[in-house]
Design goal:
This protein has helices spanning 46-49, 139-146, 153-163, 169-175, 200-208, 247-254, 265-278, 316-325, 331-345, and strands at residues 27-31, 38-42, 54-58, 61-62, 66-70, 76-84, 90-96, 106-109, 113-120, 126-132, 186-188, 212-218, 241-245, 261-264, 286-290, 305-309, 356-359. The chain is of the alpha/beta class. The chain folds into 2 domains: 3-62 and 172-359, QueA-like, CATH 3.40.1780; 66-146, Beta Barrel (Thrombin, subunit H). It starts with 26 loop residues before the first strand and ends with a strand.
Length: 360
Amino acid sequence: MQTEEFNYPLPEELIAQAPADRRDHSRLMVVNRQSREITHAHFHDLPDFLPASRIFRNNACVFRARLPARRPTGGAVECLLLHPAEKPWEFWCLLKPGRRLPEGTTFGVENVFSAEVVEKRIDGENRVRFTPLAGQDSVTAIAEQAGNLPLPPYIEQARKEADAAKDWSDFDRERYQTVYADPARKVAAAAPTAGLHFTPALIEQLKGAGSTFHDVTLHVGLDTFRPINVDRIEDHEIHREFYEIAESTRQALAANTGGPRVAVGTTSLRAVEDYARKAPGETGPFAAEADIFIYPPAQFQLVDSLITNFHLPKSTLLCLVSGFLTPGSLDGIKWLKELYREAISLRYRFYSYGDAMLLI
């Protein structure tokens, strides 16, 4: 299957640089996969379209994974934390300027941390060993002290071009985080963005109508959003993301009652569907690395409906949503592009801070 089939044109002005003024006032395209009926609404209308449901959400908390630092010579370094390596105090990272930072290079922030590049891979990732200088107990604690939120580059660049002097940091600390993110689970290098539309009041409204909420924790990495750079989808090497599913969530997934199972975002769906293929029969919490690559013609075992944003061309997320539209068929590829064309014509906003879709 050619990767180009998952491409589409998008006007740059529809790439959202900030979210809706109120979280649940983002727009919502509702797609009934059986009748093919399309409804245009707002996210606060979600209870009108969902029966009492089991709603599975990713409670991972975004940490300040972008670390500005300096080499001993004074040169600037940007270190973007991706995921932990096997050894304590080591992380896989992206580095800028990567080509000028060979193995053995050191960098850091005075009185906060020092770091050394200990391995470089051909895919651009670097294994970095950190040394705390201010009593921190983890690399994440270093990042929380010295780092910045890892906003997508298309947001940061557009903001610089529009108004380089404006400080968005306080705004993003609140809005580039779901209202249900667990501060004890600072494991995400990017936000599970479909969840950004929920408010506490909307969650309570859904609960009042009979829905239940269940948490999974998937350690979101930036590979989630990277375009596919091979000609054939089948040749793409899918990234791995660690996830955890509590015993109570496993019970909710397995139950025969409670209504449809709704995944909030592709990260939740990926965790749940990977779990469905690996889960042993025993009880208790479950943890694994999601290595599932979902693309048409895909089958889904545990997810009945999906809440998701509008995704980048030629991304694994676009593949997943295409597969979910028409399970077991290739028809979802063409249909998703038709839906995106309609969204573009109606000026929906795309990507991380953009609007949402509900596929039922």
